[in-house]
Amino acid sequence: MSGDTDLWTRRARPSFLYVMYALLLWSIPMGLLAGLRPAMAAAMIRGMAAYLAAIPEPLYALFGTGYLGYTAAREWGKRRQ
């Protein structure tokens, strides 16, 4: 963990990434379920497409910015030590 003494800040950094990963990775089990039930596949695909389309574009940009910024800051901090 970082040397930051603020407990909430230390938790917020990785928690943000975990939430974003969960949102994006949820499509994997949904896709597998669709593959197991061919009769339901069309409905599942429509549902998954609607789910992914419902995630606002700025949220994807926020994830990318947060991920790249977090990893760059961690790497920079490690090199400074």
Walkthrough of the structure:
The protein has 81 residues and is mainly alpha-helical. The protein has one domain (24-80). Helices cover 86% and strands 0% of the residues. It contains 4 helices and no strands. α1 crosses α4 (57-80) and α2 (27-36) runs antiparallel to α3 (38-54). The protein is elongated, with a radius of gyration of 18 Å. InterPro entries: GTA_holin_3TM.
User: Can you give the mean pLDDT?
Assistant: 79
- Radius of gyration using CA atoms only: 18 Å
Decide which structural class fits the backbone.
mainly alpha
Number of helices: 4
Tell me the number of structural domains: 1
In total, the number of strands is 0
Report the major sheet. none
Helix and strand succession? HHHH
Low-pLDDT windows of residues: none
What are the SSEs and their pairings?
Layout: H1 7-25, H2 27-36, H3 38-54, H4 57-80
Helix pairs in contact: 1-4, 2-3
Pfam family, one: GTA_holin_3TM
Protein name: Holin
Keywords: Membrane, Transmembrane, Transmembrane helix
List keywords for this structure.
GTA_holin_3TM; mainly alpha; transmembrane; 81 residues; 86% helix; elongated; 0% strand; 4 helices; transmembrane helix; Holin; membrane
Briefly summarize what is shown.
The chain has 81 residues and is an all-alpha fold.
